[in-house]
Amino acid sequence: MAIEVGMKHEVRLKTGPEHSAQKFFHGVPDVFGTPFLGGLFEGTSAALMAEHLAPGEQSVGISMNLQHTAPTPLGMEVRAVTEVTQVEGRKVTFKVEGFDEKEKIGSAVHERFIINAGKFNQRVEAKKS
User: Phi/psi class of residue 53: alpha, beta or left (left: φ > 0; alpha: ψ in -120 to 50)?
Assistant: First the structure.
């Protein structure tokens, strides 16, 4: 089944100490970190795509314009909802929103690209030498 505009997917995550912004820099609040929100958004979008890829295909993130607009105390559950807004050949664009148990905490426009895993891995290996 092809990836189509309007498709949605949701992922929930119970935050814990391993998701603290302080994992990236000690001089910031001990709350759910922006890098983890971005990773949640990327993973939610990748999971939607994975269900619709042909054998030998994978997706890679190519851009994200992320706004993290509200703090989330560690221990709260967060939820990411992604929706396909555009499909241009092998490039898929998503609108992603994040929520904690009280409010909306962020949003993003995220783009992913469908790749041939074999060719991609060959390129990575060639870069090592």
Answer: beta
